[in-house]
Amino acid sequence: MSPRRNRPRGGGRSASGGAERADRYGVERTEDWRGEEWVVRQVGGGAAGKHYRCPGCDQEIPPGVPHVVAWAQHGPVDDRRHWHRACWNARDRRSARLQRSRNAPRY
Question: Which end of the chain has fewer beta carbons closer than 10 Å to its terminal beta carbon, N or C?
Answer without folding.
Answer: N
